[in-house]
Amino acid sequence: MFLQYKFPIEPTRAQHARLASILQLQRNLYNDALQNRRAAFQRGVHLTYEDDTKSLPAYRMANRQHTALPWGINNWTLRCVDTAMTRYRDRLTANPNAGFPRFRSEERWRSFGVHGVRGCVIADGYLTVDGIVGKLRMRMHRPLPADARLAKLTFTRRARQWHVAILIDCKVGDQEHKKPGSACGLDLGIEQLASLSDGSLFDDTPRKTTQSSALRRAYRALARCQKNSRRSKKLRERQDRASQRVINLRSTRLHQISAAITNRFETIVVEDLALKQFPRPTRTRRPSDGVGAIAIRENGQVLAEPRPKRLLEMIRYKAEKAGGKVVVVDPRHITQTCNACGSPTSESNDADRHICACGADVPRGTNNAINILARGLSAHAAALGRRVGKVLPNASV
What's the pLDDT tens digit per position in 329-344? Predict the structure, then answer.
């Protein structure tokens, strides 16, 4: 099982300059390799990652600064080029006029990584990497697992602050969940980020904090200053710091919600939703769209902020780590069914609550979560040849 740990690092002045130099070298390598790929593609030749690695020794000899770097750093950059060209060929199938991948400027190139961890050592809160002067001090807010094996390192600079993302490979044993036999249904919503079948509701509170106001003020100040001026660079760094604080708050909130759900329930039943079908956020409102279209855009913007796809990814790996599992069910006709009587319609068209003639009056997200759990119970009962019970059997579909 692969897990990623992200820690801020505190480099010295010499280490900071070295990291910035490596970042610039890898940006140049990315742009040169991308130019080579584009020229070959226009001639009808499709280069691969193996072709780039074969030409890498000649490139390192021509650019002597790369010879002091380990091969893993250059290989990480070449894999980024290969990923960009693969996505470009996929876009061509849908749109023959799709544009080539863009070259990276300094503002659009923030990271470099190490593919393969030879010469990388983590000990006593310090990280040692070949090609970087001295030991990098890390602020490790939690220790790595004892049996962890390093797989990849990624260094990221944002607003003069460096972070390292450590990808590790650790073994997850067949441990038993703290609450065996417990199950719940999970529904993702707009007003409430997550609704459980037991009535629990989780909202995305950091979305309306003072950090968001600071981010808006930073955007307004940057929009008023002159482009490419000295003040614009300072304000852009200020905007990056405010943006990073908001990202950290939202990420922390998603971790808290996913941990609370996976610790309470062994089996979590979710809908098999294609999250790309949700409306994307937009900043423009056209009068010709009508009231309904404007409401969809507003809801799409609210839904895009909590990032339900990332929440589901967190729930999946945390459930596996805690000894639980995630069950996926068919989402059809879940929102149109009453959880109490099973009728296909309800008396209320309210978006917040579900009110039915049978007397049921619950939040709409809770109603959907109960229906999701019932469908998961039915699927397991049909697979095991049993009747539907109140708890989910401890077995896979």
Answer: 888 878 778 888 877 7
